[in-house]
Amino acid sequence: MKVPLPENGYVESSATGRAKYTNPMFIWRDYCGAASTERIEESTRQCAPHSVVVVTFYAKSGRGCETLPTPIEDGDGNYGRNLEPYLLERFAEQGWINIWSHRYSTNPYSPMLMMAFTNTLKAHEFLTT
After folding, report:
1. Beta strand spans in 4-70 (E)
2. C-alpha dist (Å) from residue 56 to 13, 23, 31, 46, 103
3. Are 68 and 16 in contact (CB under 8 A)?
4. CB-CB neighbours of 105 under 10 Å
5. Residue-wise pLDDT tens for the chain (129 aa)?
6. How, if at all, do strands 52-58 and 26-30 pair?
7. Could you tell me which of 115, 111, 107, 26 has the C-alpha nearest to residue 62?
8. What burial class does residue 104 get, using C-beta atoms within 10 Å of its C-beta: 0-12 exposed, 13-18 middle, 19+ buried?
9. Torsion (CA) 14, 17, 18, 21 in degrees, nearest 10
10. Helical segments of the chain, H only
11. Do residues 112 and 105 lie in contact, with contact meaning Cβ atoms separated by under 8 Å?
């Protein structure tokens, strides 16, 4: 059963369901799958100032993903070269500033891309200095 993740800036509360959170948040969206349109939209939604969001996507192929954004495709369902620049642009459009990007692999067949963003210059300066 697929359970949807809360929107950025919301937390689960047993008393009220999902509640808006106004303090800075650390949000880790470990998708370990293709960077679908829905996942990108879900991850780039704004929340409280000074927050950090980290995303992890499969960094080589979007095969099997029906909603792969066209600009990141580079033929045959692959998007390895275009994924990081595309995500930088999409997050920036929503006010997120890149802290770092890191490519890694859990095995030879699963290259991954992990990226961290914050939504204020003050937090960016603190986290990158």
Report:
1. 10-13, 17-20, 26-30, 52-58
2. 26, 24, 6, 18, 10
3. no
4. 11
5. 666 777 787 777 666 677 777 889 999 999 988 899 999 999 999 999 999 999 999 988 777 788 888 888 776 656 878 899 999 999 999 999 999 999 999 888 889 999 999 999 999 999 898
6. parallel
7. 111
8. exposed
9. -50
10. 37-44, 83-93, 121-128
11. yes
What's the token pair of residue 19?
């509640």
Ranges of each domain in the chain: 25-128
| Residue corresponding to tokens 């095969």 | 63
- Angle of the 83-93 helix axis to the 37-44 helix axis, nearest 10: 40
**In the structure encoding, which two tokens stand for residue 92, read together?**
């920036």
In this structure, which amino acid lies at residue 86? Y
Residue 71 bridge partners (DSSP): none
> Which tokens in the block code for residue 69?
């954004």
Give me 13's structure tokens: 């509360």
